[in-house]
Amino acid sequence: MKFNLKIAYNTFFTTLLFTFTVSAQYYQTNGDGMEITSYRPFEEVTDYANFIECTATSPGTKNACFTSKLQEFFNENLKMPKDSISQNFNGKVYFNFFTDPKGELESSEIYSRPETKFIEKKIGLVLKKLPKLKVVQLKNTAVSTGYVLYAKFTPEKNIRLKVIDIKVSKENLKEEEKKEAGEGDVSFQIVEDAPIFPGCEDMAKSTWRSCFQNKLNKHIVKNFNYPEEAKELGIEGRINIMFVIDKDGSVKNIRTRGPHPLFELEGRRIFAKLPRMIPGKVKGKPVRVPFSIPITFKSY
Questions:
Q1: CA–CA distance from 135 to each of 99, 115, 131, 183, 274 (Å)?
Q2: Architecture of domain 50-134+140-172 in CATH?
Q3: For residue 128, what are the CA distances in angstroms to 48, 74, 113, 132, 277?
Q4: Over the stretch 36-76, which tens digit does the pLDDT of each residue have?
Q5: 75-128 residue pLDDT tens
Q6: Which residues of 236-270 are buried (b: 16+ CB within 10 A; e: fewer)?
Q7: 3-state secondary structure of 237
């Protein structure tokens, strides 16, 4: 089977559209069907809202405590209906929840599917019982944390949870701090010296932008995997990937928005593999260059 991958480069002043056809490659799963990806949220995000009882400071111990407490909370509060369909259900339900700057539940969303309707409402009710979490602070300002998970249901076994993404919101940071974070950002289309993708260094300056785009296209196609589960569920959709090439040429602040976490994780995984660039410059001084790139996942 093949898939159609559409990529558009959005800057402040232009949109360029490219279309590729790529062969699908799939993630592996371990013995119980828990999906394996190269993205490790607790390695990418080390500060997040946690249970009050989790006082350890080392990343591994914090992760283990959060996961254990959340697992325990769900198995205590989520009881499967007694009918035969529910008792024999073998599958996953994807969902997310966000805590506010006080550590209390702010919102939640279930990625609904017809075959999981019977349990989705119960997950929502369990989330409403979530205890107040210990908030995380950035620059002495409490911020909200979002978690994307799936619950794995297996007949006659406890529910297993897996956190597949963590999103720490900076929306409530002070305005001057947000301004400082974006200070010096210059659009790819107007920056005096565009960032240089490795392999484009010896080309004429006039070709740096086109070379960058070509190299980025090849990187995406080379590393693209259409998630197997998305294929099985018949999921299609478009995600937006935002990132910054920083003043030192590193790729930072990779963020995604999309209709399903499977696609968001795939997009973030691809862009996390980008190499260090030669940074963009204005009057010889390095500047931050932001990007927003929509990618459409479509099977045919």
A1: 8, 35, 12, 27, 32
A2: 2-Layer Sandwich (3.30)
A3: 19, 11, 21, 11, 45
A4: 345 678 877 888 999 999 998 898 999 999 999 999 999 99
A5: 999 887 777 667 788 888 999 999 999 999 999 999 888 888 888 888 999 999
A6: beebbbbbbbbbebebeebebebebbbbbbbbbbb
A7: strand
What is the C-alpha radius of gyration for the chain, rounded to an integer number of angstroms? 21
Contact by Cβ (8 Å): 200, 211: yes
Structural contact between residues 62 and 68, judged by C-beta atoms closer than 8 angstroms:
no
| CA-closest candidate to residue 97, choices 66, 76, 55, 140 | 66
Amino acid present at 124: G
Q: What is the pLDDT of residues 253-299, one digit of tens each?
A: 888 888 899 898 889 889 999 999 999 999 999 999 999 999 988 87
The answer to whether the beta carbons of residues 267 and 256 sit under 8 Å apart is yes
> If residue 290 lies in a helix (H) or strand (E), which one and from where to where?
strand 289-299
Predicted TM-score (pTM) of this structure: 0.72
Tokens of 45: 């995000």
- Supply 170's token pair: 């900076």
Give ranges for CATH 3.30.1150 in the chain.
50-134+140-172
